[in-house]
Amino acid sequence: MEKIVSLCKRRGFVFPGSEIYGGLANSWDYGHLGNELFNNLASLWWKKFVTERDDVVGIKGPIIMNPKVWEASGHVQGFSDPLVECKICHERLRADKAEDLQVHTDEKHQGETEWTDPKNFNLLFKTFIGTVEDEKAVAYLRGELAQTMFTDFKIILETTRKKLPFGIAQIGKAFRNEISTGNFIFRTKEFTIAELEYFVKPGEEDKYFKAWADFMENFLLNDVGLKKENLRRYEHSKESLAHYSRGTMDFEYYFPWGWGELWGLASRTDYDLKNHEKLSGANLKYKDPETGKEYLPYVVEPTGGIDRLMLAILVDSFTETEARSGDEEAVHEKEIILKLPKTLAPVKVAVLPLSKKDELTKPAQEIATQLRKHFVCQYDETASIGKRYRRQDEIGTIYCVTFDFDSINDSRVTIRDRDTMIQERVAIADLSGYLSKRLSG
User: For the domain 334-439, what is the CATH code?
Assistant: First the structure.
């Protein structure tokens, strides 16, 4: 993890937020490369879970909703973690995290401490609407995205003319006042969720639960490209289920510190629609067009954190290898290659003139300008060609295009593949088509 965190900061993927003021615990900024990787991942999810399917539509809801939404959903009453306080230093930790409690005791108090009795700590961030901060003005930052899909269920049904089964999806920020945060961007108080509520006829939820589990696994393995040995399914016991869930399964990833929750799949029954119907007085039932019967649909919810999946991708792609890009300047025992999938790599192509002489740099810059119309492209003329190759390997760039002295006469460039190291001469006139074909494959 230390190597990955260092790479992320050094190359502009992720670095501490508000750092000039000493930072803020578990607040992270995504740099120019991290932002591109994040957007590519979110776009890939949207493509596979929404636009390529005929049974899912997308929406975009607000961060602050009517506070009654969170009453109906059970979050005001039940969205909490058990909290204990150290009687010696008064630090607060989750009571259900035995390992964290033991580490605290051993490292801070030489193996002896006392804890208070557990108390429930609500994870919703509270804020106020208006100029007066009293109970009438209380509102909450959303702790999940799902509730917009439930409150909008009927109007989405009417405007899309969808029939069951169908889903509503969105990607956006969620906020949880987590007691325990850490492991880089794995657990933070502010994060982005890709969430989907799939509405089905009661009695058919188990069938669709299985179908979505297989769909999610296929996405993680084949579209995202995670290694199969680093992914597993974990079924939650009834005692550990969320207040709305009849059954939950997690996809866990093997992070450097061990197995950790990556994505989740929950069977929410009609819990949310039933409670919103009860508190709002609105009719949220679905009318079966064939039988005319009205009922509240059951819901299957595939959901995942984009930030957490991004971390898994960085871990999965991080590769150290023996020196392979030349050692003309110094002996370097290891090189880092970020073997990101083509669809996710933040930079697709780098254009590198062999030297900084004008007869090479000017045409190379022109090539980069043309390629930027089609791909995210970097231009780099600083340092030796071997060092520039290594820089591009570290950020996961798929192809490096080198303009050399021969290029002046034959109008061809050398394309180097990140993973295979194969180099091929290609006509400049054919360059865009050559890259498009390979980057789309």
Answer: 3.40.50.800
